[in-house]
Design a protein that fits this description.
homodimer; alpha+beta; 6-stranded mixed sheet; 22% helix
Chain lengths: 321, 321
């Protein structure tokens, strides 16, 4: 597993859900006997979800996210069980319970359900386990929404330890879905553009973002979204970092984008507000010290990393080639 | 539409299917009256597909890809019709015919079907139209495989001018899918690693590649795929360019990756062969002049761009930060 343990020099590693040292053993997923053997091994552990919410064991002030399979059985019937990978000592699985509200089983009065954003924000688990939780949540959510074949409508079934579904009627194969999203800090001299979506926490401003569509490069998606949402044309674009984002299953592709104009034309169906912020303002926002109470997204969000790097002068928008 | 016409400085623009100047007017897609008005306008044109294959009009030695809606009606019944966007003069749609083998209609004995790879390789249409063809193919393929709700199995229906499907039974909404794929040139000093998949044209070697999975950053996906396929651990990774790839609907994310080892361990289920190539060899391969007859992928592939940039010394693998 040496490749999984190297020091990762890229900026992506500083985002939330981005630490994941599991060896996925993807070439063994179709080997049912091998996966069963892993599952029955002494050290095997499972993360557990009820609906979209992680189930945890409370241990005093701490939380234990890993269940033995005997403990999982005590929580209820498993709707899906997927293999996440193997760390340096043991195999990790994830279980989606059939019930969305598990009755704490005998001897498990210490069972709690805490939504994954809170688990992440409050640092209730190690970064490695948080990465595995993100992986599990995206994969289990996909299963929960793909029990039927989109090609013919028949019920389908999970295979490959959770990494494929097959339809026995039309023989279609379906693979877990990951949606690429561009998220960009638009910069203009010493200012950057941040916006507020309806539903953001009070005072929070963040980078603009949107799904990459069919027929687009990352750069084209950045330009389209910035123009649609804020009316700003953009020129040079630089990749900064990426992040797996499990709400429900995106790959966030973080970029800087050079504004070619200053005058905003805000799409008020998408954004409550958007405006230019100076570097001094952003420093205060990152420090939670802005006099107007405006703040950046929290540290686990890739928008936070983009703002930090901009403040540090690491924007990489070199002249056109 | 000024934002769509700026000179794009990034390397992505040099890949195939990456030129697309259509304004998608995504905020108007749900306005059925507006979309109908566009469709009925004098200048409206449609690309046409029968199954996965573009339909073209032969005009002597040239090919005309744009049909009026009267012409489309002459080709057969439309299974799906989607709005691609508006160029500087007129709206573009794409039509998927119900039949996979259209009978040339009266007055259309000049109709031909040519698969999209050949259209691209042979340069049968302008780069702008090729970009629109890629957009259309990915979107129409998604519709053809998603006529039923994956959440409940009921037939669903297309809305938003082709950019969403809704289920009237369970009310699930489904959005077109784009799969992020990492494709990487692994470099070690003056050598790079290229492999051959079964089914590649004779003599062709290309970059390793694979789908980004749930819970991964781009960089983690690069490291996993290179280790799985070739047994090589990788360190620093640098984004180079991206490309929409319509076979069927990927976003190719092109990177350089620094090899931390030289000894290959090839997964023979994925690759027929993989080996190190020197810069001198790659120069000959790009020029189609290698004495052993080995060649790079064609110019429209992002692998070609990665190799060109490597030869030019533009690898951007800076020291760790």
């Amino acid at each position: 597993l040496k490749h999984l343990w190297i020091e990762r020099p890229e900026r992506s590693v500083r985002t939330g859900f981005a630490v994941n040292r599991l060896d996925r053993l993807s070439e063994r997923r179709d080997d049912g006997a091998f996966i069963d053997e892993l599952r029955c091994s002494e050290g095997a552990r499972s993360l557990v979800f009820a609906g979209e919410v992680p189930v945890l064991k409370r241990r005093g002030d701490a939380f234990e996210p890993l269940f033995t399979f005997a403990e999982v059985d005590g929580l209820g019937i498993a709707a899906e069980q997927v293999f996440l990978g193997h760390d340096s000592t043991r195999p990790f699985f994830a279980t989606l319970l059939e019930t969305q509200t598990p009755e704490p089983a005998q001897g498990h009065r210490d069972i709690v359900m805490i939504d994954l954003r809170s688990v992440a924000m409050q640092g209730l688990v190690t970064p490695d386990v948080l990465g595995a939780f993100g992986q599990a949540k995206s994969l289990l959510y996909w299963h929960s929404r793909h029990r039927f074949c989109s090609n013919c409508g028949a019920p389908n079934r999970m295979v490959a330890a959770g990494w494929r579904r097959v339809c026995d009627v039309c023989e279609a194969q379906h693979f877990p879905r990951t949606d690429p999203v561009v998220i960009m800090l638009v910069v203009s001299g010493n200012d950057c553009l941040l916006g507020r979506q309806p539903g953001f926490p009070a005072g929070m401003y963040s980078c603009l973002a949107g799904f990459v569509e069919a027929g687009e490069t990352c750069e084209d998606a950045v330009r389209r979204e910035v123009f649609e949402e804020a009316g700003i044309a953009t020129g040079r674009i630089a990749y900064v970092a990426s992040q797996p984002w499990p709400f429900p299953a995106s790959l966030m592709i973080g970029c800087f984008a050079e504004a070619l104009a200053r005058e905003l034309s805000i799409d008020t169906r998408e954004l409550d507000d958007a405006r230019w912020f100076s570097q001094d303002e952003v420093r205060l926002m990152l420090a939670r010290a802005h006099p107007a109470g405006v703040v950046t997204p929290p540290k686990l969000a890739i928008a936070h990393l983009l703002l930090q790097e901009w403040i540090a002068g690491e924007i990489g928008l070199n002249p056109p080639r």
